[in-house]
């Protein structure tokens, strides 16, 4: 079992219950790589500043590099009796190089050490997640381009609203995913501040060089206040918040695909390889993957709440409560990456049911706003136009008629401005192509956006 870093002051051994209850090695072992890289930079600095002899610094670095290699090869045997990853590595260093290992923790506390480890871990994870979001955007874009001439009925309140290009709907996903990437990148900017040297909470009386450690570890900034350095976890909260918002987007995308794949909608068919069946109903092909993505949002938001509540009543500075920030953080990061990976693949395995969708576009209520705008262009006020078209729609629904089947005389009765040429706009393509306002769904605008995104995502 790893030696306690604080045992000498104790007149008794801690209870095994205490050891088990306080240990974090089972989950913080994933920080091992960062812990060592941070320790190597720290040892280098101690040598450079002559706080420890140069040869001791070199020996410590050699020992740590050895351990790092083992960890990278997956050969390091973690000691599950250790209090945490920091103790475990310190103990292993003792075994490798002997008492000189005892000099590594000079001018350092686990309080600033753990903050450093988590920040380095987060910078890497954010890079990985934003890269995966980019790949998902590309996968969606590819699907959008392959189906760029498909028009679907758009919905508000889950009631048929107006025609839009399917690609336009898909580009909406790409837009919100872009903001998710930006949010994470933005969070990284504030994570990028090096806390080591804050020690327990007050800094050190030894001539340490914090800027040197900062540059060794590739941090943009160095923290300005030693108490803040070990007290706050806002960078974890910020990351968890950005992931929670991202998860809402991924859930809504999943919900659309779930709806679209129902018999009732029948917009898409998801390949068997991304569906599951029923143990009792032989006919079933269920979108379980998408449902689990939707369901995962619960725990991702729970993880954010968990750390928010963990932090909210803590007095400054470090408190052991903060050890419990890690399981929810790791869980959200792992879950999001898993979701992104499967969604990237799933978008390559969807077939659009073009004929079934086209049949739904015969519903002329999709064009009601187009008739309103037709009248407005001829001088009718918006309010009056809305009333006129409302009456037309009601009569047609009551009589089971189509607007396009109304005679010229019947049209005139609703408004003298309703000429027979109104029939020309009563089709999906005309309707879509009327929406030429910036950001609208007109074909030429959407094709332009597809191009812009192709360039942006491949850059
Ligand atoms: N395992 C602890 C954590 O994750 C490390 C810091 C412990 N510091 C201390 N003084 N007990 O927060």
Low-confidence stretches: none
The major beta sheet can be summarized as:
2 strands, antiparallel
- Shape call: elongated
Q: Helical residue percent?
A: 55-70%
Summed up, the domain count is 3
Continuous helix count = 18
Which sequence of SSEs, written as H and E, runs from N to C? HHHHHHEEHEHEHHEHHEHHHHHH
Arithmetic mean of pLDDT = 96
Our Rg estimate from Cα atoms comes to 31 Å
CATH H level, superfamily name of the largest domain: Fumarase/aspartase (Central domain)
* Approximate strand percentage: 5-15%
CATH class of the largest domain: Mainly Alpha
In the CATH hierarchy, the architecture of the largest domain is Up-down Bundle
| Structural classification | mainly alpha
Strand count: 6
CATH topology of the largest domain: Fumarase C, Chain A, domain 2
Distance between the termini: 51 Å
| Ligands bound to this protein structure | arginine
* Spatial order of strands in the largest sheet: 1-2
Give me the secondary-structure topology.
Elements: H1 16-22, H2 25-28, H3 32-48, H4 54-72, H5 85-97, H6 110-146, E1 151-156, E2 159-165, H7 166-191, E3 193-194, H8 210-216, E4 221-222, H9 226-231, H10 234-260, E5 268-270, H11 288-312, H12 326-346, E6 350-352, H13 354-360, H14 368-377, H15 382-399, H16 408-414, H17 428-434, H18 443-458
Helix pairs in contact: 3-4, 3-6, 3-8, 4-5, 6-7, 6-12, 6-18, 7-10, 7-18, 10-11, 10-12, 11-12, 14-15
Bound molecules: arginine.
Arginine (ARG) binds at residues 24, 28, 84, 110-111, 114, 320, 322-323.
């Amino acid at each position: 079992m790893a030696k306690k870093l604080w045992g000498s002051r104790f007149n008794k051994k801690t209870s095994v219950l205490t050891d088990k209850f306080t240990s974090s090695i089972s989950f913080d072992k994933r920080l091992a790589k960062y812990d060592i890289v941070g320790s190597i930079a720290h040892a280098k600095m101690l040598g450079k500043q002559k706080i420890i002899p140069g040869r001791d610094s070199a020996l410590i670095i050699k020992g740590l590099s050895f351990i790092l290699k083992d960890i990278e090869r997956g050969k390091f045997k973690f000691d599950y009796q250790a209090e945490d990853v920091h103790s475990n590595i310190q103990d292993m260093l003792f075994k490798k190089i002997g008492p000189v290992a005892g000099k590594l923790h000079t001018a350092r506390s686990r309080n600033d050490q753990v903050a450093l480890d988590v920040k380095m871990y987060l910078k890497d994870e954010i890079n990985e997640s934003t890269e995966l979001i980019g790949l998902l955007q590309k996968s969606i874009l590819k699907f959008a381009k392959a189906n760029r001439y498909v028009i679907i009925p758009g919905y508000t309140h889950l009631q048929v609203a107006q025609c839009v290009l399917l690609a336009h709907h898909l580009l909406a996903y790409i837009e919100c995913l872009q903001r998710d990437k930006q949010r994470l990148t933005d969070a990284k900017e504030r994570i990028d501040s090096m806390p080591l040297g804050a020690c327990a909470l007050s800094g050190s009386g030894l001539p340490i060089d914090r800027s040197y450690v900062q540059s060794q570890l590739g941090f943009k900034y160095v923290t300005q206040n030693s108490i803040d350095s070990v007290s706050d976890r806002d960078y974890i909260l910020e990351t968890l918040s950005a992931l929670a918002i991202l998860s809402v987007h991924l859930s809504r995308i999943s919900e659309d695909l779930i709806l679209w794949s129902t018999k009732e909608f029948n917009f898409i068919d998801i390949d068997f390889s991304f569906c599951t069946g029923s143990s009792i109903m032989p006919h079933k092909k269920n979108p379980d993957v998408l449902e689990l993505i939707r369901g995962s949002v619960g725990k991702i938001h729970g993880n954010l709440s968990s750390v928010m509540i963990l932090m909210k009543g803590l007095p400054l500075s470090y408190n052991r409560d903060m050890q419990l920030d890690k399981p929810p953080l790791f869980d959200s990061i792992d879950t999001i990456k898993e979701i992104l990976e499967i969604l990237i693949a799933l978008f390559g395995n969807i077939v659009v049911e073009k004929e079934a969708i086209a049949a739904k576009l015969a519903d002329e209520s999709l064009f009601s706003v187009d008739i309103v705008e037709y009248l407005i262009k001829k001088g009718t006020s918006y309010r009056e136009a809305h009333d006129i078209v409302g009456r037309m729609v009601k009569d047609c629904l009551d009589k089971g008629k189509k607007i396009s089947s109304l005679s010229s005389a019947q049209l005139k009765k609703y408004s003298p401005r309703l000429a027979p040429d109104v029939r020309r706009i009563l089709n999906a393509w005309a309707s879509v192509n009327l929406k030429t306002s910036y950001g609208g769904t007109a074909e030429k605008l959407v094709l332009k956006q597809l191009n812009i995104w192709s360039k942006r995502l491949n850059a």
